[in-house]
Amino acid sequence: MGGIFLNYRRHDERLAFVRGLYERLAERFGAGTVFLDSASIGHGRRYPNQLRRHLDRSDVVVVVVHDGWARELRTDGTDWVHNEIRWALDAGKTIIPVLFGGARMPRAQELPRTIRELANFQAHRADDDPGHDLLVDKIAAEPRRRAAIAQTPPKPWAGPVAGVAGAVAFAAPVVLVPGDWQEAAVYLSVFGVVVLAAVLFAVSVVSLARKPLNTAERLSQYVDPTRYHLAVGAPLLILLESVVVAFVFSSPVDPQLRPFLVVGAGVGVLYLVFLVLGNYQTEKFREDHWPVRLRHPVKPAPVRRELERLRRKHATADAERVRWHLVHLENAADVLARDASRGRWRWLTSDPTGYLVAYTAWAAASVGLLTSAALPAMRLWVPAVAFGLVAAMAWATVEAAFRRQRWVRREVADEVHVQVQRIQDRVTRP
């Protein structure tokens, strides 16, 4: 057990209850394992730093809910009860609401949006457990290895970096491209727009075909990684090499360009080879050292692979390992479900940050090239139309990608919850 964190709102009426709960937990798990602000923070210590440090070290957060508790929550950043719960939810902690003094569990619509997920946690009624024995048993039943998974954090720098990259990419051709390069600038601009259109087409196809693709991805998890790489990776490499050879040595290709094409193709093939070898080594490590924590941020495909690994191992593996992995996968599914509820901007600045910066720079450079060609003749309506077209394609690309990732995350989360429940039923069946 990494630690138990007591979250409560100070009041004379509740202080005796919280003190008694702290003493009972400390008696069972040790005083150094249970955190209560009035008992655990020494004089002269920075209060916010100590709260966050102890919360990060804890596996279980006990939230004491009294009558009218939800109405007292504030979201202005000064309410530590709200802040602690929000941090615990984002970190994927095990949260046990304890209903004190006849209080009821607040509904989701009664809670601030930032901690609305708390309404989905099973509560413990203190009036039915005056000695806290049942609560202690619940906490003791938690896996002793940390199974929590943090929610995917946003990257505040992604938006400004994308904006700066776009501004630089637009201004560079306008300032640096000489006037006699107008024709080349137009061709490059058209090429850039065509690439953006190709990206939109590919993302749209993947989004529209998400159901059959999702089925194929689910079925691929049943294949051994070594066989999968040999059956899929090797033919793809052979096909890529064949296409490159046919293209390089065809008559339209300038002989002077052939070495560059060969080197570029070779670099691409080496990248794919090392990518396949890296994936193979990762899968082998996870297989040999099972169970292993999922990497952050949590993605649907690794969660599916771990679900399949659990399905194969649960009948013969150690019960404690199986139990920890069940909780770990349930937490991962909860993270996927919460990530699926993010808005478009939060998703953009959390997951595809590299693509966001690269796409913004590419789109801005395409418009900038066309602007540099139109400036001498002052035909600025041309880049204005191009800007509108590029903006529309960017919006459509983001929308299609956003809808697909949201749908896939929800599908995988539901799939994990169903399969984990089935495994739990088989494990606990006499």
Can you put this structure into words, describing what you see?
With 430 residues, the chain is mainly alpha-helical. It is 64% helix and 5% strand. It has 15 helices and five strands. It has a five-stranded parallel beta sheet, sandwiched between helices. Helix 9 packs antiparallel against helix 10, helix 11 packs antiparallel against helix 12 and helix 12 packs antiparallel against helix 15. The longest helix is centred in the C-terminal third of the chain and has 48 residues. It is globular.
Keywords for this structure?
430 residues; five-stranded parallel β-sheet; mainly alpha; globular; 15 helices; 64% helix
Blueprint (SSEs and pairs):
Elements: E1 4-7, H1 12-29, E2 34-35, H2 37-40, H3 47-57, E3 60-65, H4 80-90, E4 94-99, E5 124-125, H5 133-140, H6 158-176, H7 182-208, H8 210-220, H9 225-248, H10 258-288, H11 300-313, H12 319-340, H13 344-348, H14 353-374, H15 381-428
Parallel strand pairs: 1-2, 1-3, 3-4, 4-5
Helix pairs in contact: 6-14, 7-14, 7-15, 9-10, 11-12, 11-15, 12-15, 14-15
Give helix % range: 55-70%
User: Would you list the SSEs in sequence order as H and E?
Assistant: EHEHHEHEEHHHHHHHHHHH
Radius of gyration: 28 Å
Quote the average pLDDT.
81
| Alpha carbon gap, first and last residue | 28 Å
Report strand order across the widest sheet: 2-1-3-4-5
Structural class: mainly alpha
Strand composition percent: under 5%
Q: How would you sum up the global shape?
A: globular
* Model regions low in confidence, pLDDT < 50 over at least 5 residues: none
**Helix run count:** 15
**Assembly type of the shown chains?**
single chain
Largest sheet descriptor: 5 strands, parallel
Question: How many β-strands, per DSSP?
Answer: 5
